[in-house]
Amino acid sequence: MTPLDDIDRRILRELQRTGRISNAELGDAVGLSASACHRRIARLEAQGVIRGYAALLDRTHLSRRTTVFVEITLSGQAVEILDAFEAAVARIPDVLECHLMAGTADYLLKVVVEDAEAFAALHRRHLARLPGVAQMQSSFSLRRVRDTTELPV
């Protein structure tokens, strides 16, 4: 992989802020021609630095106002238990993130739902049925203080 230089970093910062920017506008913003920007973006994509592009949706317009963090402790650490849990949790669309943790919990889930009632239904239908779960603790977010997808580059 080619190391990232200052121009690559400026391109990445700009693309994170404005993903639909044209190569001409991006070139103006970082001091390159549109074709030079296009070549650099193609290289960053080929190297996997840029994984893809997505639209960032406003959760409130989609009735997903409530964020719940769920700490899961499994009954054991055998590979079969971890694999079964991870495969099952990957099939729950309301789970935006699932992290294998070091610390008091084995996994931390980030779940988005309409409200507490919707979370209770999700808990009954899906979370309570996840394989290998010994303990589960849920914490409701009161307010998003910082919410970004931009990585520091």
UniProtKB/TrEMBL annotation:
PANTHER family in UniProt: LEUCINE-RESPONSIVE REGULATORY PROTEIN (PTHR30154), TRANSCRIPTIONAL REGULATOR AZLB (PTHR30154:SF34)
UniProt name for this protein: Lrp/AsnC family transcriptional regulator
Record carries keyword Iron: no
HTH asnC-type domain span: 4-65
PROSITE patterns linked to this entry: HTH_ASNC_1, HTH_ASNC_2
One Pfam assignment: HTH_24
Keyword match Transcription regulation: yes
Tree of life domain: Bacteria
Entry keyword set: DNA-binding, Transcription, Transcription regulation
